[in-house]
């Protein structure tokens, strides 16, 4: 076994514990909860509905079940297929909704699809996903487990008793095909499977659908059966594109276990902008949740750039601010004297703190202030290096930069396309060197301009920046 796999099996919270230990953990929780003092339990369904986080329910019974104190807390799971080493902003709603369940006193499971990730979910896809090699899959599982553990760990106050991370390869690795067909396949109805939206779209396309992908809904459906039977999980959540897979699970539970209205599905809307496009895609690609893929500064900046048309809705679905506070922010937007981007700043702060913690938010705020043109913060090389991976950079010999006209440096570095454009920018007051406004076209680079003798920061307006590195 590789060292990465060894770390994964031994260090990630509850990720690969045995079925017996997992069942004992849940039974322990049940006994503890049954003797806990009776207090009011917030109605999680109503909260999600109020905030725009509820798309569909498989049964209206869930609305009363979730707040009935005669019932034990719900046990809820959300699945994450390891298609990349990091989750992205599109996956964030799953973690947000799981966190709301935690806040309302329920228990949650994050399920990583170590088995189903080898098949690939066809939902929302026009072509079959490329097959992942096992080493890449293992690395993806490890990365996602770390992100989920970090975020849910903070939401649960550092206690791992309120959530568990599982991998469905744990039970699928021992399932034999003939046994599966006998124990599960005979309960599946092909007509229902074909009628699923994700299947109908693919069957009508030129590419069609492989049998492998066709079975995905059955595999995910059986995950719900397994989790219900072995772990007492009775709610599955997912994006609206997961409706077919979720109902496959509730249907199998009803048919195989012969029980009615005991397992529920809940979907939330996909994370879309007001124009219908996906929120979570930047010009460079996906907005990743892992700091090793995207810095907290860059993550913060993406959220800070949300347009006014979307910011209130995103405050409701991506933060835990009270609805009263969000309403106040919405009212402020339309009032005279409103400071632009106040709501966006609050959105960026709240979501960055949720994903990256207070330390990540502090890092993002320091970098944001340091890179603000006209800021009084004195730049040093450590500060510039900290954001260099998020902005373009250009390498030049030290002796070629010293005494070089700033206008020429802007053009040669690629920050601005022509000298005439640089001159116009200087006249408009939009060119900055190390956050200090350049107000003289004849300005040349001096020794004191070079930060710690090795770096320069050029800014064209507020957003376009260039780090110039100097070689000896």
Automatic annotation (TrEMBL):
Q: What is its EC number?
A: 6.1.1.1
Any Gene Ontology CC annotation = chloroplast stroma
By its UniProt entry, which Gene3D superfamilies does this protein fall under? HUPs, RNA-binding S4 domain, Tyrosyl-Transfer RNA Synthetase
Q: Which reaction does it catalyse?
A: tRNA(Tyr) + L-tyrosine + ATP = L-tyrosyl-tRNA(Tyr) + AMP + diphosphate + H(+)
Q: Which GO terms describe its biological process?
A: post-embryonic development; reproductive structure development; tyrosyl-tRNA aminoacylation
Provide the alphabetized UniProt keywords. Answer: Aminoacyl-tRNA synthetase, ATP-binding, Ligase, Mitochondrion, Nucleotide-binding, Protein biosynthesis, RNA-binding, Transit peptide
Q: Which CDD domains match?
A: S4 (cd00165), TyrRS_core (cd00805)
RNA-binding S4 domain span: 404-462
Q: Please give the Gene Ontology molecular function terms for this protein.
A: ATP binding; RNA binding; tyrosine-tRNA ligase activity
User: Quick check: keyword Protein transport in the entry?
Assistant: no
Q: Where is the protein situated, by its record's location annotation?
A: Mitochondrion
Recorded hits in HAMAP family, A to Z, give: Tyr_tRNA_synth_type1
Q: Which family does it belong to?
A: Belongs to the class-I aminoacyl-tRNA synthetase family.
Main function: Catalyzes the attachment of tyrosine to tRNA(Tyr) in a two-step reaction: tyrosine is first activated by ATP to form Tyr-AMP and then transferred to the acceptor end of tRNA(Tyr).
The name of this protein is Tyrosine--tRNA ligase
